[in-house]
Amino acid sequence: MKHLLYKLLFCAFVSALSSANCYALKPSKTYAAVPDTLHLPFEQNTITTSDNFHLNSWTFLPTKEANNKVTLVLAYADAGNMSWWLSQASIFSQMGYTVVLFDYRGFGASDPFSIDSKMLYYTEFANDLTAVTNFARKKYPGNKTGIWCFSMGTIIASLAYNEAKPDFIIADGFVTNPSGIKEFYHQKNDEIMLPASASTYESALNKLTTRMLIFSGATDKVTTDTSVTAFKKKKPGITIYKHKGGHMEGFNLLSKDFPGSEYVGVVSRFLKIK
Description:
By secondary structure, the chain is an alpha/beta fold. It has helices at about 1-20, 85-95, 125-140, 150-165, 180-185, 200-205, 225-235, 250-255, 260-270; strands at about 25, 45-50, 55-60, 70-75, 80, 100, 145-150, 170, 210-215, 240-245. Helix content is about 35%, strand content about 20%. β2 (about 45-50) and β3 (about 55-60) form a beta hairpin.
């Protein structure tokens, strides 16, 4: 029954992603599902940022017996809201992790924020991730606290790094060059805009010193394996796990016993969790 729930949640996640444009910001205020209707144990919290925005957050807690004392703060990609990530959160929590989901400002039930759908990201989202990471660290002080980020969320994690101070970063679809993403979609006749601060993004990457695991897809045309490999030359301490799929497809492909089972294993081995 537990694995059936995982599969149902994951199918909903894949369906939601496939129905959205895979570029720029497409926030949704409507939740595809909520944890209590799915009978998933969770905590609901409202987290206030340094600039006084209120963010909606759900935390999935492991059982006392399974608890591995690791917190994952999930910084998702550019579309939907945190309900799209219920599958991943519930699976990781069943495997012993404390998983904190949240909605950026302008997404889900977090405070409204004016969003231009042509923007790749807003630097204000880094304030959101910083507030949530600091909240999680204080809420679960005995845990190692890391950021688990996808695509646009990897930009936000890099920008938030100095203030959020994560113990580690797990990245999927890692963005090494926002201008390259803009050019990629320009060639497809899709207009993308970047904040003015995008020109300093390389400086933010240079400041990353924490442990980092990057899932990289061989057929990823957006955040290419080539760009990730080049990044490792600058940061030889990072770990890259390569899979055969495309952009953010690792969780789907690295499944054996249940959705994401091998993916969780890669993360646990990286963090040296038995």
